[in-house]
Amino acid sequence: MNILAVVPAYQRLGLGAALLAPVLKIADKEGRKTFIEASQAGEKLYRRLGWEETGDTISLDFTEYGAEGKVDILLMMREPGAGITL
């Protein structure tokens, strides 16, 4: 999986968890850790599914390209079987 996004009007309906469920089931079965770069908008979902912050963030500053401000991206890791059962 490369990018996961849900249109804002459809967020908080369980779609993100439903999209992640098959991938996490495979990772858990194979005993694999999973790593994500999480936006602040997705952080609550990812925590519920078992990801934890690694303590590192990536900060992107788009002001030099004419956009406003910076975006911080959390680096998160999930141990096999962590979080809610899907």
Question: What attributes characterize this protein structure?
Answer:
globular; alpha+beta; single chain; 28% strand; 3-stranded antiparallel beta sheet
Write the layout of secondary structure elements.
Elements: H1 15-29, E1 34-38, H2 43-48, E2 52-61, E3 70-78
Antiparallel strand pairs: 1-3, 2-3
What does this structure look like?
With 86 residues, this protein is of the alpha+beta class. The chain has helices spanning 15-29, 43-48, and strands at residues 34-38, 52-61, 70-78. The radius of gyration is 14 Å and the shape is globular.
Strand content: 25-35%
Rg on CA atoms, Å: 14 Å
Number of helices: 2
Characterize the overall form: globular
What is the share of helical residues?
Answer: 10-25%
Distance between the termini: 17 Å
Give the number of DSSP strands: 3
Could you give a short account of the major beta sheet?
Answer: 3 strands, antiparallel
What is the strand arrangement across the widest sheet? Answer: 1-3-2
Structural class: alpha+beta
Average pLDDT rating: 91
Unreliable segments of 5+ consecutive residues: none
SSE string, helices as H and strands as E: HEHEE
Provide a concise account of the structure shown.
The protein has 86 residues and is an alpha+beta fold.
